[in-house]
Design brief:
Layout: E1 18-23, E2 31-38, E3 44-49, E4 54-58, E5 63-69, E6 74-80, E7 86-91, H1 96-99
Antiparallel strand pairs: 1-2, 2-5, 3-4, 3-6, 6-7
Length: 100
């Protein structure tokens, strides 16, 4: 058996709207697993990768889960409401334009 996990906090940190994590495992050697929670009313999250591309993941009961190619770097996560409006955002890495 393989697995990982954590115990979610009973409440987010002040000003925390999006929790994010990623992990690579030997079980899926070519994939990066992306996961997290949103603490706002969102139906999806938009991931922005270091190459500028994006992916949309559904939010189900405040959680999101997806996969990307191993080596993929996520620069930011935005939570979107049912109309597609951004309701929260989290920068994980500086954008390529500010990394030089």
């Amino acid at each position: 058996m393989y697995g990982f996990g954590d115990c979610p906090r009973s409440a987010p940190q002040p000003d925390e709207k999006i929790a994010f994590g990623d992990v690579w495992t030997y079980v899926h050697p070519d994939l990066l697993t992306i996961y997290g929670s949103v603490y706002v009313d969102a139906t999806s999250v938009r991931l922005t990768f270091d190459d500028g591309s994006t992916a949309i993941l559904p939010v189900v009961e405040q959680f999101f889960l997806g996969s990307a190619a191993k080596g993929t770097k996520v620069d930011s996560v935005a939570a979107l409401d049912a109309a597609g409006n951004q309701v929260a955002a989290r920068t994980l890495r500086p954008s390529r334009s500010t990394r030089g």
